[in-house]
Every structure is written in C-alpha cells, then in structure tokens.
Amino acid sequence: MDQIPSTVVYFLLISVVIAGCTWFFQYMSIKRRHLQLLGKITKVPGLPIIGNALSLFGTTSEIFDLFVKYFFEYGPNFLLWFGNIPVVIIGKPEDLERTMQSQSCLSKGYFYEFTKLVVGEGLFSAPVHKWRKTRKIIQPTFNSKILNYFLPIFAETSGIFVNEILLRYVNRKDIDWFPLFSSVHLDTISQTAMGMNTDAQRRKTNFVDHLNTALRITFFRMTNVFLHPDIIFKFTRFSAEVNTAVKFMKKFTNERDLENRPDDLSFGDEPSKRKVFLEFLLELDHKGNKFTDQELIDEVMTFFVGGTDTSAVTSCFFLSMMGMHQDIQQRVFEEILEVIGPEKSADVEDLTKLQLLERCLKETLRIFPPAPFIAREVKDKEVKLTDYVLPVGTVLLFSIFYTHRCPDYWENPLKFDPDRFLPEVFSKKHPYSFIPFSGGLRNCVGIRYSYMNLKNLLSMILRKYKVYCDYKSIEEIELENCIVVKPIHGFKIHFEERR
C-alpha cells in the first residue's frame, strides 16, 4: 500500500490545529463577552472547555432530577455552559415576561433543531420568519366559533372512552393508563385535525408507542453533546430507532392524501358539516395563503404531537390529584351534576360554568406542567433583565417547573389547592408565575382547544366513575422528562363505577 505523502499529513495536522485554535479563541471570546454582560448571575461550577456538559449524561429521570436540583440550588436565574454554548436558565416571573415578550427571544434556537426530524417546521419548531407568517394565518382557526364545531367530536371520542374502554378496567390496579388516555386523545386529534377516524381506542395503533420513542430519543440527544453532530448520531442505534418511529408517524398522518387538493373548494361562512383543522387550512390556502404540501404535513404533525402526549399526561395527573383528594373530587362531582346533569352531553356554556373543575385543572398544570422547560435563543440584539443583560447568542431555558413549584411565588407549593385560582386570589399573582402553555408572543396557539377538550373528557369520567390513587402525596411521584414530563412508576390510579 502506498504511503500518504508527508506533506499531506503535515497539511492535515496544521488544519486540525488551526481549526482547534479557531474554536478555542471563539469559545473564549464568547465566554468573555457573556461573563462581562451577565456579571452577577449565579454560575453552575463546571469544567474548562466542556462546561457542564458531562454532568448531563444519564437517564431521562437522572437528567430531570439534576435540572430540578440546579433550579432550586442556583435559581431563579443562573448560567451553565453546554460545551461552548452559554445557557441561561430563567425562573423569575418578571424576567420570564421580559424575555417571552421580547422580539429578540422568538427563536427556538439550537436545541430545537433536533425536534425537526419529528415535527418538521410547524409552529412548534419553525424559524421566526416562518413562524410569523404561519401563526398569523393559523391563529383564526382556533377562535371560539370554530372550536364550537369540535365539541361534538370531543363528546363522541370521550363517550367511547367512558362507556366502553374504562368500563373494561373498573377496579383494576394493574393497568398502564397512559397509553389508554393517549388513545382517546389520538382519536380526538385525528378527527379534529384531519377528519380521520383512527379508532385508536378500540383497536391498537402503534402511533403512541412510536411517538414516545421519538420524543425520548430526541430529549436524550438534546442533553448529550456527543450526539449533536449528525455524522456521529446517524451511526448510533438511536438514529435507526427514531427514523423508524418518525417514518411510521408520517405514514399515519399522511393517510389523507394532501397532494390531491381539489381546485374547486367552496367554503361558506356556515359550513354544512363539521370542518376539521386541515379543511380550515385548505380554505385559507384556497383564499391565497399558500401552503406547500410539506408545510401542511408539518402543521398537522405538530397538532398530533402537541395534542396527544400533553393532553394524556394532564388527564392522568388530574385524575391522580382527584384520587388523592377525595373531598375535592366530591365537590367537582357535585358541580358536574349541577351544571350538566346526570346524562346529557355538555355544551359550550356548560363547560364554561365548570369553574371548580377548571381550577383543579389549572392547579394540576401548575404542579405538573406538561413541558417542564422550554428553550429560546437571543437573536439580533441584547435583552435587559432585572439585574443583567442577555448577550446575543445566549440560549435561554425557561424553567416552568421551577417557577410553578417555587415557594417564593406559591405558598406551600406542593399542596393541591384549587382555590389558588379563584379570580380574587390569582389576580394578586404575577401573570408569568403560571405559564403551563408557555407565554408571551410565542405561546401555545391551542390553549382554548386543550381546555375545552380536557374539561369535556374529565367531566364525563368523574360523572360516571369515582377515581382513587395509590400515591399518598405529591412528593411520592418521581418524575422523568421526555420533552413531556411523566411519572417514572406510572399513574397509580383505579376507577370504581358510581351507583
């Protein structure tokens, strides 16, 4: 075999040295600038060059525990280094408001690049220029009038769950509830998003399993700096697993062919049949707000991913709280009977009147926010906070979990107390002390959809069943984060049919 010429070897060595020196001087320049501007911010001790990256190795539960430890040890705001990436964690409500309302903090940033394999560039992960255009177009599809069209779908899918699925598992303590609740929400999303009846509750679909695989691997990759480069990640088993999962999910959501869009759509102000999310997008497309096929697929996939896992965990955590607090559950049950009655389906006005149930739902979301932290990146210009300035290029991690559980903002934070959300009580709180659906300019577009769907399902369940929980306190529930927070040991609830 011919030897490689020595000049080539020297050239490669020199190139590596130059690249390494360039990276190092860039790193030192970035670090010097950030330390100069951030000044008094608390800093998590780390190693030279790699910062705190090595401490973030571990299982999803170990990483979550470490973040929570950091939150309460160094919070409300502090700085850590993820290799050469400065990450400022923000938990102070006043600073959450400043950053979430800032035009400079709209970019989802570096870490969300890894989510695009799963959800594409829908509203969740789109770059700012694309997000602005799409948000403006999509926002009107979540108005009250359109959401009212979805209520019969909510009632239909929830009815199957309450009258068929739960009935099979009455008094059973050996059930993994999360997949069952994911299935009812998958059915709801499928029908409201695409007009597609997946019947996921009655026949098993692997969508939820593949979604959980994709989210778990995505979060693991986010926190493992060595898996960030595509050239490394694609040679790991995780790459094959996530690609298999995403391929199945895309096939699932593409069953309704987006390429064959009719050219003669005729939409009136009062539709003669139920419209679904995709039809509203197609109507907007027909009126001149052009979407490519890929953009439509990305928005529908975002709707699926954003609405299935988060709604399922919130439902299960809510019922866990009801099972843990029987006196509150009884009051909610009595409210449901008084407002809706023992048999009829709830209408929009009924759901609005379920004030105690809504306060219990909000208190559940306070203690167990589905997305415990979300990221952004400072772009274009620096952002002034209470005590320091955020330089351009800083990655921000909004620690919603910390803010919702911090005793500085919530007295006795691990006590389940729905009266915290009485109007006269909550009005005294900083509005950014409770942000389960994010906040500010880039908050969740489907907040009202989620509340309506959850209130309908949960009221139907509690009207027919009494729920119990084997956890005796909130402190007992050990958590992990796979982008969506879940209990490590499952939801220990069981149901008894009311007589």
UniProtKB/TrEMBL annotation:
List the cofactors.
Answer: heme
Topology in the membrane?
A: Peripheral membrane protein
* UniProt keyword Repeat present: no
- Record's keyword annotation contains ATP-binding: no
Q: Which GO terms describe its cellular component?
A: endoplasmic reticulum membrane
Q: Where's it mainly located? A: endoplasmic reticulum
Signal peptide as annotated in the record: none
List localization entries.
Endoplasmic reticulum membrane; Microsome membrane
Do you know which PROSITE patterns this protein is assigned to?
CYTOCHROME_P450 (PS00086)
Q: Which UniProt keywords apply?
A: Endoplasmic reticulum, Heme, Iron, Membrane, Metal-binding, Microsome, Monooxygenase, Oxidoreductase, Transmembrane, Transmembrane helix
Q: Which GO terms describe its molecular function?
A: metal ion binding; monooxygenase activity
The entry marks the following residues as binding heme, namely 444
Highest taxon of the lineage:
Eukaryota
In terms of InterPro entries, this protein maps to: Cyt_P450 (IPR001128), Cyt_P450_CS (IPR017972), Cyt_P450_E_grp-I (IPR002401), Cyt_P450_sf (IPR036396), Cytochrome_P450_Monoox (IPR050196)
Q: Where are the transmembrane segments?
A: 6-25
Tell me the Pfam families matching this sequence. Answer: p450 (PF00067)
Give a short account of what the protein does: May be involved in the metabolism of insect hormones and in the breakdown of synthetic insecticides.
* UniProt record similarity statement: Belongs to the cytochrome P450 family.
Q: What is this protein's record name?
A: Cytochrome P450
Q: Which organism is it from?
A: Cryptolaemus montrouzieri
